[in-house]
Amino acid sequence: MPSGLSGGEPDTSSGTSSGTREQWRAGDSFLSMWRELAPIGRHADSGGYRRYAWSPADLDCRAWFRAQAGARGLAYETDRNGNQWAWLGDPRAGDAVVTGSHLDSVPDGGAFDGPLGVVSSFAALDELHRRGVEFTRPLAITNFGDEEGARFGLACVGSRLAAGQLAVADAHRLRDG
Fold first, then answer.
1. Which Pfam families does the record cross-reference, listed alphabetically (predicted)?
2. φ, ψ for residue 8 (rounded to 5)?
3. Burial class of residue 39 in the structure, from the number of CB atoms within 10 Å of its CB (0-12 exposed, 13-18 middle, 19+ buried)
4. Which of 71, 104, 125, 135 is deepest in the core (most CB within 10 A)?
5. Which DSSP helix (H) or strand (E) runs through 139?
6. Measured CA distances, 85 to 20, 25, 88, 141, 143 (Å)
7. What are the structural domains, with CATH classification, of the chain?
8. Per-residue pLDDT tens digits for 34-75
9. What is this structure's pTM?
10. Is the CA virtual torsion 8, 13, 18, 22 positive or negative?
11. Cα gap 116→98, rounded to integer Å
């Protein structure tokens, strides 16, 4: 079983499973995470989001992702494509379960596109942990970089690179604007 999880019946009186570490959050994790993330990149005039890949707002979102991984004791890494990974268990141990989404946005994008998948993934992991679920495979939560294509004109760059569907040389030819 990956570190950080324990078996047995959850201790619902404290909102956490028996044997848990302090960094695991209680059942209201979705709302608290959403409150932290919601103001980042919100445009004052339009109310929409401008979290363009690699912009200051996107970098703030990426720092938020890394902090969420750290708060749970998850192993954190950024791959050579700029995708962020938060791992529970050893990623080399075999068939991993991967969940997540992206945190960047289109111009004046909505609040839930992309970030909902990332926040929900962390919240789901928190709930499974609270229930004492044991994992038999590694689990990763990911934030794919530059999925919306708002800056470089091609959507899903991070996930395409990760899946081998975009050659690195082609990605290098993309231009800002």
1. Peptidase_M28
2. 90, 180
3. exposed
4. 104
5. strand 139-143
6. 22, 19, 10, 6, 7
7. 25-172 (3.40.630.10)
8. 999 999 999 999 999 999 999 999 999 999 999 999 999 999
9. 0.84
10. positive
11. 15
